[in-house]
């Protein structure tokens, strides 16, 4: 499948028709174990489902094909994937450099779950090459990049970070959740590993949790696979199947998410009620040129800073109707969130704190005229 283009791979990789019945969609292998042909006689390597399941394998094949990777591993959630990666590759005394605008759960995992086990984390503004070089130590193993970042849509130049990391003996992990492989493929830019919350754009329908690690080559596969097997935060067969089904429409969905978000960003940029529009598709965004170089579109996420301050931002988030007030992102339906009390509540008062006048939009694929009308009525309502 790797010779085919992205949209074709998204539909066909890992999806061979059932050889017995010809069912065009491979069945959901809802089983916990596999019968052996004599002791140790595993059919196609399947034994017990914590170690491997055919529906999960199909998703892992699909994920690797989408990112141009050599292999992928699928987990019960994005954070389970991150945890398996970090514990598989790090040992006590190791050091991680983390971008200063990352998913709050990633920050919490490193600083509260893994720190007591001897993993040290330094927060760095990854757009500042000198700051990264200054933070690098002999024991730095990983530079963790999220671009576009959450929720301020900062853009980090992946190839530039890779150069600095590799020169310093570290590897680069990119959390590619916001862009999705439809818009950005970090392994092709030199990154060593990609992680996803497949809960978001890959699943795409707000109906399943999941996560993945995608490998650029074989160097890091075995230790992470061992974590998956030994700890067991695997994706269940039905969850893997739902994610596979979502991925098949990723290319068309993301095109529409991006088109709608661009229209909303341009509308918001002309409104005095918003002092800042955070969207990399705007020429005024500081990361616009880098984004245009390393992405094939600007995505469906944008944030807005309300000129009137935190009270107005909170009220705005509670006044939309088509945009539903909820955590998460990347589904076909539009969502609005107030990061400082929702997704980023865990980083309040830290270096990662989000300005309190910011709302975050996950722009869905509804008719954009309805979305803009909804934002307009919310502005009218909070002005009263
Ligand atoms: C949601 C999210 C995660 C965590 O994934 P879960 O599936 O919720 O565990 C990690 N990174 C980013 C950027 C996310 O948006």
In short:
This protein is of the alpha/beta class and 384 residues long. It has 12 helices and 12 strands. It has helices at residues 6-12, 54-67, 78-89, 104-114, 129-135, 158-167, 221-231, 237-247, 250-269, 288-294, 310-317, 368-383; strands at 71-75, 95-99, 120-124, 140-146, 171-175, 193-197, 211-215, 274-278, 301-306, 324-325, 335-337, 358-362.
Architecture overview:
By secondary structure, this protein is an alpha/beta fold. The chain has 2 domains: 242 residues, Aspartate Aminotransferase, domain 2, CATH 3.40.640.10; 132 residues, Aspartate Aminotransferase, domain 1. It is 35% helix and 15% strand. Strands 1-7-6-5-4-2-3 form a 7-stranded mixed sheet, with helices on both faces. A 5-stranded mixed sheet has the order 8-9-12-11-10. β2, α4 and β3 form a beta-alpha-beta unit. α11 packs across α12. The chain is globular, with a radius of gyration of 21 Å. The termini are far apart.
């Amino acid at each position: 499948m790797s010779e085919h283009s992205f949209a074709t791979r998204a539909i066909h990789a890992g999806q061979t028709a059932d050889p017995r019945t010809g069912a065009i969609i491979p069945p959901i292998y809802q089983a916990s174990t596999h019968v052996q042909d004599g002791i140790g006689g595993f059919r196609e390597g399947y034994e017990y489902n914590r170690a491997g399941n055919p529906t999960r394998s199909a998703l892992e094949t699909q994920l690797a094909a989408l990112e141009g990777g050599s292999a992928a591993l699928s987990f019960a959630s994005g954070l389970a994937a991150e945890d398996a990666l970090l514990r598989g590759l790090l040992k006590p005394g190791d050091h991680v450099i983390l971008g200063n605008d990352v998913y709050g759960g990633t920050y919490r995992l490193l600083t509260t779950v893994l720190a007591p086990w001897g993993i040290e984390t330094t927060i760095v503004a990854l757009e500042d090459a000198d700051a990264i070089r200054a933070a690098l130590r002999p024991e730095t193993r990983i530079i963790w990049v999220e671009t576009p970042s959450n929720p301020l849509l900062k853009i980090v130049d992946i190839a530039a970070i890779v150069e600095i990391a590799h020169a310093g003996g570290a590897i680069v992990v990119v959390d590619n959740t916001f862009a999705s492989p439809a818009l950005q493929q970090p392994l092709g830019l030199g990154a060593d590993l990609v992680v996803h919350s497949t809960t978001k754009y890959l699943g795409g329908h707000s109906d399943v949790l999941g996560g993945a690690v995608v490998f650029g080559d074989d160097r890091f596969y075995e230790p992470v696979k061992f974590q998956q097997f030994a700890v067991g935060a695997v994706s269940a067969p039905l969850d893997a199947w739902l994610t596979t089904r979502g991925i098949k429409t990723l290319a068309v969905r993301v095109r529409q998410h991006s088109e709608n978000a661009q229209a909303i960003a341009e509308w918001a940029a002309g409104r005095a009620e918003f002092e800042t529009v955070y969207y990399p598709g705007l020429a005024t965004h500081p990361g616009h040129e880098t984004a245009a170089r390393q992405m094939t579109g600007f995505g469906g996420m944008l944030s807005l800073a309300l000129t009137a301050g935190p009270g107005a931002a909170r009220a705005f988030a509670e006044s939309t109707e088509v945009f539903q007030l909820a955590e998460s992102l990347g589904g076909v339906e539009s969502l609005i969130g107030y990061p400082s009390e929702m997704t980023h509540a865990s980083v309040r008062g830290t270096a990662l704190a989000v300005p309190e006048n910011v709302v975050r939009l996950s722009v869905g694929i509804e008719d954009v005229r309805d979305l803009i009308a909804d934002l307009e009525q919310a502005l009218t309502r909070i002005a009263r």
